[in-house]
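Thread: quick sanity check before group meeting

JM: Hey all, I'm pulling together slides for Thursday and realized we never actually wrote out the predicted structure for the chain we discussed last week. Dropping the sequence here so it's in one place. If anyone has concerns about the input, flag it before I start.
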Amino acid sequence: MKYLAILFAGIICGSTAIIWMKISEVDYGLLAAYRSLFAALILLPLAIRDFRRSAVNPLPYIRRAALPGLFLGLHFVTWIYGARLTLAANASLIANMMPLAMPFFLYAIVREVINRRELLGTVIAAAGLWHLAADSASLDSAYIRGDATCFISMIFVTGYLALGRANRDFPSIWTYLVPLYATAGIFALITALPRITTLSAVSSLPREIALIAALALIPTVFGHGMINFAMHKIRGQIVAVCALTQFIFSTILAYLTPSLREIPSPAFYGAAVLISIGVIVTIIKPAAKTE
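JM (edit): ok, ran it. Output follows.
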């Protein structure tokens, strides 16, 4: 139960990312780089402390965090880019397909097989997504590029989290997150180099700095940090299904944010109920054993 509470706290923090992303004017590559690198800097003292306490050579751990860090960087860059090329409904639907892809990654990387209850919860939650999609998503050819990019981004985030499941033996969560975020940030920065002057085009630099700080701290340090911690403690498919609730929190925040005031469609409520039922089915005791 403790780990589930941490997971949902991380999901709620992560749900704020779409708000900062939609409000910010910064180039998508720079935005991904800043959130990752600032997050790494914030957590660096904790990682140094834990590496010293454990008296281990940090280099092998840093190398092992590089691959999931690359996947995370690819996810951040493609998610921001793709979300700006398609409808919000399309992007939300595609990003939330993670539970459908997660079983394949878990089996390939850690030989973890989902059980019947997790499968049932996944099917119920997926029905909620399709209910939402049938009402609001568009298959317009004008959005194909954005839709395809969001799908690729979903693959990257699923792979990054599954790889985190395989890296549970780090001295602490901080020693994993710092090289993870640093790798993601460096990769995102490299992709942004051809457009590096974009930052000077924003209308208010202090405002953008505040938004970047919020993006780095709330959904990255706290959001991804707690979700990764839960991934180390809870079965991977449980994390994937619970993560579907992020769209519920994001929708509520988008409605409450004065500059957005996005009103959810009627289908949102039915989808929210189905996803909540799917999560409950998945996390009840027989399926929520920690390792």
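AS: nice. The first helix runs from residue 2 to 14. DSSP finds 13 helices and no strands in the chain.
JM: adding both to the slides.
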